[in-house]
Structure formats: C-alpha cells, structure tokens
C-alpha cells in the first residue's frame, strides 16, 4: 500500500484508539478530552508510516535517512519491522518505559504510545492485503502471508482508503 492508504488507515486507527482503547487504559487521566485524543491521533499517524522505515525510498525512510539506511541494510524491507511480534515488543517496551515518567508527561507518553501501536497495527493489516504480504509468524517462519493480492497503488489502495473513510465516518457519527 502507498502512503495515502496507510495514512488513511492511521486516521481510522487513531480515532478508534482514542475512542475505544485510550479510555480503558489506567493512567493518570490528566490528558483526557481533546488533548489526549490529539496525542493518540498523532501517534497513530506516525505509527501508520513507521514500519516502512525499513524501506529507504518510502516517505518515512526519506525523513529518517540514517535510521532507515541502517535498518534496511541490516534487516531488509518487509522483514522483522513488519512482524506482529516486533511491533508488540517495541510498543510494549515504550509503554513500560513511559512508566518512568511522572504526572502529565507519563499520561501524554502513554497516550502517544497507544496511538503509535494502533497505527503500526493498521500498517501491518494493510500490508497483509498486498501481494508481497508480511512475515506474520516470524520468528517461527520467515514465510510471508497475505489475505488479499493487491498491488501497491492499485485498486487495493482505493478500496482500503474508501473502507477506512466509511469506518471513520461511522465512528465520528457514533454509529460504531
Ligand atoms: Zn509496509
């Protein structure tokens, strides 16, 4: 999937995380309301693009050149960074790390990580629908799995973007 489709997935994931997940996570509650939702949302936008850091010519790869160069050279594209296990471990690590902060800083950091996690999962889900797939069961097998056969930039991008737009509309209208 291309950047616009991933961003649309990130918007949907961010709204869902702010609406359903963030309120259930016990933290100080110092940043609820519009600020908390905004931070979750920003995290989700970043998370929706972040896994492609393993691809030097991706949008995020061009923004974070040095990190992208190292990761793409050592790990390769659509490898470890595109696996559920690593995304779970990475976001869980950041979440527990935020426990070291106090007060409002901790609440802000946790809100951001909740959004980041939701955005990264949305990225995996969209890449799972592409021809190339993702190594879903890494490290048990490096085999790539997919649930659809879309090519990047093709009809799959239009379908997922439309699907995300419908989801966003339903969530904002409180119909979901
Ligand atoms: Zn990707």
TrEMBL record:
Keywords: Membrane, Transmembrane, Transmembrane helix
InterPro entries referenced in this protein's UniProt entry, alphabetically: YdjM-like
Protein name, UniProt field: Inner membrane protein
Domain of life from the UniProt record: Bacteria
Transmembrane feature ranges: 34-54, 75-96, 108-129, 150-173
Organism: Ureibacillus chungkukjangi
């Amino acid at each position: 999937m291309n950047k616009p489709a991933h961003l649309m997935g990130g918007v949907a994931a961010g709204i869902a995380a702010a609406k359903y997940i963030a309120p259930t996570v016990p933290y100080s509650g110092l940043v609820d309301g519009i600020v908390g939702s905004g931070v979750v949302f920003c995290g989700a936008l970043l998370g929706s693009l972040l896994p492609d850091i393993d691809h030097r010519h991706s949008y995020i790869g061009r923004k974070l050149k040095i990190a992208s160069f190292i990761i793409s050279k050592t790990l390769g594209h659509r490898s470890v960074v595109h696996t559920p296990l690593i995304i779970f471990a990475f976001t869980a690590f950041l979440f527990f790390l935020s426990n070291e902060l106090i007060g409002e800083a901790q609440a802000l950091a946790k809100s951001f990580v909740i959004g980041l996690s939701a955005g990264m999962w949305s990225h995996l889900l969209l890449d799972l629908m592409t021809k190339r797939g993702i190594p879903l069961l890494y490290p048990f097998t490096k085999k790539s799995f997919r649930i659809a056969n879309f090519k990047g930039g093709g009809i799959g991008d239009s379908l997922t973007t439309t699907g995300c737009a419908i989801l966003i509309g339903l969530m904002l209208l409180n119909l979901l």
